[in-house]
Amino acid sequence: MKYQTSTHSSTGLGLLETSNGMYQITAPVTLDELLSIASGLLEEQFKRSSYLNSPTTTRSFLQTRLCTRDREVFSCVFLDSQHGVLAYEELFVGTIDSASVYPREVIKRALALNAAALICSHNHPSGVPEPSSADRQITDQLSKALDLVGVRLLDHIVIGGTKSVSFAERGWL
Question: pTM, whole model, 2 decimals?
Answer without folding.
Answer: 0.73
